Amino acid sequence: MSAETRWGIVGPGRIAENVVRDFPHVPGARVTAVGSRSLDRARDFADRHGVPTAYGSYAELVADPDVDVLYLATPHPQHHAVALQAIAAGKSLLVEKAFTATLAGSQEVVDAARAAGVFVMEAMWTRFQPAVVRLRELIADGAVGEVRSVQADLGVAREFDPADRLFAKELGGGALLDLGVYVVSFAQMLLGDPDTVRATGSTFPTGVDAEAALLLGWADGRSATLQTSLRNALPGQARVFGTTGWVDVLPRFHHPATIVLHRAGADPEEITLPAAGTGYSHEIGEVHEGVLAGRTESAVMPLADTLAVMRVLEEAAAQLGVSFTEAPPEA
């Protein structure tokens, strides 16, 4: 078996610009093609990053027989259609968060992936950061006892611009799908799937959510208090509270370098574990290794967790009067 995975980039936007720079940190993972609805954009991206092939449509990239894995970095509502086409073509997928624009869309992609037996994973880089890996190890070892609650916030100040993707409903704008996905996924990673979701917040004139505060509840009394916003900046810190201590995940918690362990009766213990590259290398490596090993999903970011997070996001959005639809397939 070859020790190489050949990657195609679907959507050469801002996030793809960052992710592509981390491929050199994953030996054997190589970007061989990029696709955009604009051939000029694809060629520009390819020229700047040394990518051999550029396509002026997503369909051409999906059909490329020399691509094994697609990194899907288009706006959220476009993930669903492209992912289904890619799965039908036998491609493995790393799908940028949020996985899709709707829970139904996510379920359809997951069902298709499982039926086809191809590797598909949500690009939730947080779970693969070395500091977060260590956090999970500490919790599994009982360092803070039983985890009873989680706090997390993530927000940025953005001036309202109806022409910007972040504020466009048809492009899956709003705080929840872009930033809220991090706080919800972090809580779900540590506490499992919640039994109740309560949300309060506000919306922009375009009909997308501007800010949201979420209270997630579990039947046994555990809880998560989460905040996200496009109206104002938030520290980006998380705290994990157990029965015998707590852990601070220092800003910004979704790609932290440092956590601080507080045990009852002991001095705080600071643990610093920087990421390789800018931090995307770890999720790339997870897909690379999974595909080569013949796995169909990640044990760290399983598809069931993606569905659970999407369920919370959709329920929270609905309580704010916000709903989304998936984009139709590319013409």
Automatic annotation (TrEMBL):
Q: Which UniProt keywords apply?
A: Oxidoreductase
Taxonomic superkingdom: Bacteria
UniProt keyword Translocase present: no
Pfam family membership, one = GFO_IDH_MocA_C3
| SUPFAM superfamilies xrefs | Glyceraldehyde-3-phosphate dehydrogenase-like, C-terminal domain, NAD(P)-binding Rossmann-fold domains
Give residue ranges for domain Gfo/Idh/MocA-like oxidoreductase N-terminal: 6-122
GFO/IDH/MocA-like oxidoreductase domain mapped to chain residues: 133-247
Coiled-coil residue windows? none
Please give the family membership noted in the entry.
Belongs to the Gfo/Idh/MocA family.
Query: Which PANTHER family does the entry mention?
Result: OXIDOREDUCTASES (PTHR22604), TRANS-1,2-DIHYDROBENZENE-1,2-DIOL DEHYDROGENASE (PTHR22604:SF105)
Protein name stated in the entry: Gfo/Idh/MocA family oxidoreductase
